[in-house]
């Protein structure tokens, strides 16, 4: 409304103030329709009548013509569809729905081509459904009446781009509404897909530019396997694109560190329905490993970081060595990020420099935890840790722990890269007071040794140990032992998570011979084996079968001559849930455990993650301890129970309740329960 019109408009102030509000409301209502501002003459659908602003055209979506076995293709089409995505926001007219369908056609063609269907044809229909006794459930879950004999079909063919629907004649309201009702008829948008014959991969050619020549040839069978392609497979886009990077990796494996991909050429044979691909590569110069430069180091010694390199001087370049070095640095727990890469150009000596860029993480931390069980009572622990004590990744961890059964201090030290790569100096010391049914008193033990990685998942530890114990047991009162010995441990661990594994296995064998330092007649060897296996029965790891076993034997001394703490015991949250701590095995007349010279344990769990943060774990466990170094029989005490898991960022919080199946009169309680962090094994 112009200023002139306002000057000549004879009304009071209230009426004049209402006019801008009315105009703004009209503008907002027009913009809220599916047709945007076309109601004001900027579009092709004509003006929207005031009494039609609240009407929409509900619809469902169907796909036809695709083999039901093409599940991933159907899923991809549905995910890319605009009509599917906006189904909960129906358009204000059938013309708006038609535009959504037309927008989907190009999207669908791209999806079909990426799946090897290069000759696909797609059309769509928009069909009105007359009211009938049959109710159709639309894709958004709402019930819509339909009649397959409707005469009001509106069809569009994508081959011509024409539509039988006149979207701009102003009569849309009449055709979209049910006779005698203001509500529009529900419609069905049906896409008719004729995918045609899928194209197959017919040939793969490598065109490689070296420093002195250009070689173009067909890829060998071995190279096809390396780039994960196979002649005759469907010509899907993703494998063909990824194969290009695999081809670069093949050149780098051959010692060309700066290899890169060029322009890829794809040729389709429409008559034969085949596709051939030519990959172009620039190999660059072949090289050996050169000097290492470290960037980003602040508190960690750069020479120490460079010492993690897995290759020797003058060794031919190999990306596997780059990956190994990066992984070892990442596992050091010193850095938030690690990048290891060759940087050109290749020097006159034929060596390529290597750059290691790190971002250091905080090197100090404190933490703690709590646990509880009916047998052990409440317990708590705390620690302080420094992971870069002297600037070369040395780790010192000091801890304190206390429960009704055990109280004490612990110290652990680890120096990585000790004397050689992937080897560490390790030391630990413990000072504890014990108060269990099996024994009471103080214990000091120390260990110093070397830990070495023996492969990707294997490690070995070997060293010396010294121990003093002053313990009183049921059949060994007022014991004092000074022991010296050796400890050899072989470990294997390829699990995917230390606190909540879903795949892989663990294995450990421990051999520890001891001799008396104040009594040369004391001599024995303890041998133990333990292992666990984890198998996920679904792709996400929500349902896991877990099993464990442990066995051990002591050779050289009778039970009565052994220190109480060196005997085998079983029972409790870490072995056989359902029985009290150390109570499985031989017992004295008063019911206190005596321990034994051999042990056998087994356990099985089914871990089911019901929701993102909650799971249940039924389990069964059995075991026994024997007086002799070999079991006289394989009789086991069994227990079963049910666990509950609450999953946190650091691991699952565990609550288990278990009952003994072989309950002994006046010895075992009706049940035991346990609260802790992490899975039982």
Keywords:
681 residues, alpha+beta, Ubiquitin-like (UB roll), 5 domains, 16-stranded antiparallel beta barrel, five-stranded mixed β-sheet, 10 helices, 15% helix, 42% strand, globular, disordered N terminus
Number of helices: 10
Sheet with the most strands, sense and barrel status: 16 strands, antiparallel, barrel
Q: Might you state the CATH topology name of the largest domain?
A: Porin
Count of spatially separate domains? 5
Percent in strands: 35-45%
The share of residues in helices is: 10-25%
Structural class, please? alpha+beta
- CATH architecture verdict of the largest domain: Beta Barrel
Which spans of ≥5 residues are poorly predicted at pLDDT below 50? 1-53, 132-180
Label the overall shape: globular
Superfamily (CATH H level) name of the largest domain: membrane protein fhac: a member of the omp85/tpsb transporter family
The CA-CA distance between the termini, in Å, is: 79 Å
CATH class of the largest domain: Mainly Beta
Q: Going across the major beta sheet, what is the strand order? A: 16-17-18-19-20-21-22-23-24-25-26-27-28-29-30-31
The whole-angstrom Rg is 37 Å
* Strands, total number: 31
> Could you report the average pLDDT, rounded to the nearest whole number?
84
Any chance you could write out the topology, listing elements then pairs?
Elements: H1 3-7, H2 13-31, E1 59-64, H3 71-80, H4 82-85, H5 94-114, E2 121-128, E3 135-137, E4 143-145, E5 154-157, E6 162-163, H6 172-176, E7 187-194, E8 200-210, E9 214-218, H7 221-226, H8 237-253, E10 260-261, E11 265-269, E12 274-284, E13 288-295, H9 302-306, H10 319-331, E14 335-342, E15 351-360, E16 364-373, E17 377-386, E18 395-403, E19 406-415, E20 423-435, E21 439-453, E22 458-473, E23 476-493, E24 504-516, E25 523-536, E26 543-555, E27 598-609, E28 614-626, E29 637-647, E30 652-660, E31 672-677
Parallel strand pairs: 1-7, 8-12, 13-15
Antiparallel strand pairs: 2-5, 2-7, 3-4, 5-6, 8-9, 10-12, 11-12, 14-15, 16-17, 16-31, 17-18, 18-19, 19-20, 20-21, 21-22, 22-23, 23-24, 24-25, 25-26, 26-27, 27-28, 28-29, 29-30, 30-31
Helix pairs in contact: 3-5
């Amino acid at each position: 409304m112009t200023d002139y019109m306002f000057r000549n408009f004879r009304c009071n102030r209230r009426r004049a103030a209402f006019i801008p509000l009315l105009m703004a409301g009209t503008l907002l209502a027009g913009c809220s329709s599916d047709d945007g501002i076309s109601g004001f003459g900027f579009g092709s659908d004509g003006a929207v009548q005031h009494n039609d602003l609240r009407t929409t055209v509900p619809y469902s979506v169907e796909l036809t013509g695709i083999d039901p076995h093409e599940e991933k293709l159907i899923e991809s089409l549905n995910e890319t569809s605009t009509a599917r995505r906006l189904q909960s926001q129906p358009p204000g007219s059938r013309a708006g729905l038609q535009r959504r369908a037309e927008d989907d056609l190009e999207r669908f063609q791209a999806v079909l081509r990426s799946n090897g269907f290069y000759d696909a044809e797609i059309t769509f229909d928009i069909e009105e459904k007359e009211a009938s006794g049959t109710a159709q459930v639309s894709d958004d879950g709402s019930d819509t009446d339909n009649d397959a004999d409707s005469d009001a079909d509106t069809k569009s063919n994508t081959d011509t781009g024409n539509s039988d629907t006149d979207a701009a004649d102003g009569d849309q309201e009449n055709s979209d509404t049910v006779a005698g009702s203001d509500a529009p008829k529900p419609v069905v948008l049906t896409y008719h897909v004729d995918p045609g014959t899928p194209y197959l991969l017919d040939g793969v050619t490598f065109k490689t530019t070296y420093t002195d020549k250009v070689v173009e040839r067909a890829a060998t069978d071995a190279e096809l396997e390396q780039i994960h392609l196979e002649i005759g497979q469907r010509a899907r886009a993703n494998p063909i694109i990824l194969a290009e990077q695999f081809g670069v990796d093949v050149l780098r494996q051959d010692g060309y560190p700066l290899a890169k991909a060029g322009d890829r050429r794809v040729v389709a044979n429409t008559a034969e329905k085949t596709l051939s691909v030519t990959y172009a590569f620039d190999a660059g110069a072949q090289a050996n490993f050169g000097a290492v430069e470290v960037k980003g180091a602040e508190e960690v010694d750069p020479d120490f970081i460079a010492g993690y390199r897995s290759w020797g001087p003058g060794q031919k370049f190999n990306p596997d060595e780059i990956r190994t070095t990066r992984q070892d640095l990442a596992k050091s727990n010193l850095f938030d990020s690690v990048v290891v890469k060759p940087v050109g150009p290749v020097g006159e000596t034929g060596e390529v420099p290597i750059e290691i860029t790190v971002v250091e993480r905080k090197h100090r931390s404190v933490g703690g935890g709590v646990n509880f069980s009916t047998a052990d009572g409440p317990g708590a622990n705390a620690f302080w840790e420094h992971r870069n004590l002297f600037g070369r990744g040395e780790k010192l961890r000091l801890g304190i722990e206390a429960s009704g059964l055990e109280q004490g201090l612990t110290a652990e030290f680890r120096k990585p890269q000790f004397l050689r790569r992937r080897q560490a100096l390790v030391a630990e010391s413990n000072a504890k007071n014990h108060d269990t049914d099996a024994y009471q008193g103080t214990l000091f033990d120390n260990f110093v040794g070397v830990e070495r990685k023996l492969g990707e998942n294997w490690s070995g530890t070997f060293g010396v140990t010294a121990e003093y114990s002053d313990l009183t047991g049921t059949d060994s009162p007022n014991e004092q032992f000074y022991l010296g010995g050796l400890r050899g441990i072989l470990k294997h661990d390829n699990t995917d998570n230390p606190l909540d594994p879903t795949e892989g296995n663990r294995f450990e064998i421990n051999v520890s011979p001891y001799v008396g330092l104040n009594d040369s007649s004391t001599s024995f060897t303890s041998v133990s084996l333990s292992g666990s296996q984890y198998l996920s029965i679904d792709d996400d790891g929500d349902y896991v079968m877990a099993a464990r076993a442990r066995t051990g034997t002591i050779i050289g001394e009778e039970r009565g001559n052994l220190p109480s703490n060196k005997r085998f015991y079983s029972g409790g949250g870490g072995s056989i849930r359902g029985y009290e701590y150390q109570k499985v095995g031989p017992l004295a007349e008063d019911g206190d455990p005596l321990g034994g010279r051999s042990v056998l344990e087994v356990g099985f769990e089914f871990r089911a993650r019901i929701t993102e943060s909650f799971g249940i774990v039924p389990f069964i466990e059995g075991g026994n301890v024997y007086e002799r170094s070999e079991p006289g029989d394989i009789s086991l005490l069994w227990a079963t129970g049910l666990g509950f898991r609450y999953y946190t960022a650091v691991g699952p919080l565990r609550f288990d309740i278990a009952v003994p199946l072989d309950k002994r009169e006046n010895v075992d309680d009706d049940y035991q329960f346990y609260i802790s962090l992490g899975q039982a094994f």
